Amino acid sequence: MNDTTVLHMLEETNAVMHGHFLLTSGLHSPTYVEKFNVLQQPRYTEALCKEIAARFVNDNVELVVGPMTGGILLAYEVAKNLGTRFFFTERVNGKMTFKRGFHIEPGTRVLIVEDIVTTGGSVREVLDVVKSEGGVPVGVGLLVDRSGGKVDFGVRTEPLLRLDVEAYKPEDCPLCKQGVPLTQRGRTGK
C-alpha cells in the first residue's frame, strides 16, 4: 500500500476536508483529516491496519498501545494483525495514563499506534507512559502524519500517508485575519 492508495481511501470517504479548522493541538489549518469518515468503513480500517502491522511484523512487538479515541480502534486492529495484546491510554485530570488495570511488564516491546499527528503531542505522552512503566518503544505507526515528516519521536515512525499541511497559531492564521469563520467538524468547507 502506498501514499496514493491511502489518499484515495481518505478522499473517497471524505476524510480529507477543506475549510478553516481548529485542530486538537490548538493550531488552525485549512485542511482537516476526519479519520472517522474512513474508520467507519470496516474494509478500509482493516486494510489500513494490516499495512501498519506489516511494517512492524519483524520487530517482535509484544504489545500495541494507542491513545483514546481514534488510536483505540487502530491499535486494536494492528494488535489483532500482529497476534498480540493491545492497551489504550486515557486522560485523567489532563494527563495521559493507563487505567482499567493496564500494566506493562518491564522490557515489553511496545508499538504505539495513532491516527493523525500534527505536532506529535499525544504520541509523546503515550511514549512517556510506556517508558514510565518500563516498556520499550519499538516504533510508532500512524495513519496520517500531517507534519510533513517534521515530528521525531526518537523511534522508527511509519506513517501510511504524509501530508504537508499548513497549520498556524491562531494569532498568525491567515484565515482568521481574513475573517473566515471556523468550520464545524463533520461539515465540509467551501
Automatic annotation (TrEMBL):
Catalytic activity: orotidine 5'-phosphate + diphosphate = orotate + 5-phospho-alpha-D-ribose 1-diphosphate
Function: Catalyzes the transfer of a ribosyl phosphate group from 5-phosphoribose 1-diphosphate to orotate, leading to the formation of orotidine monophosphate (OMP).
Keyword Glycosyltransferase included in the entry's annotation: yes
NCBIfam families (alphabetical): pyrE_Therm
GO terms of molecular function: magnesium ion binding; orotate phosphoribosyltransferase activity
Transferase among keywords: yes
Pfam family, one: Pribosyltran
Superkingdom assignment: Bacteria
GO BP: 'de novo' UMP biosynthetic process; pyrimidine nucleobase biosynthetic process
Protein family: Belongs to the purine/pyrimidine phosphoribosyltransferase family. PyrE subfamily.
EC number(s) from the headed UniProt entry: 2.4.2.10
Top-level enzyme category: transferase
Binding site for 5-phospho-alpha-D-ribose 1-diphosphate: E114, D115, I116, V117, T118, T119, G120, G121, S122
Full protein name: Orotate phosphoribosyltransferase
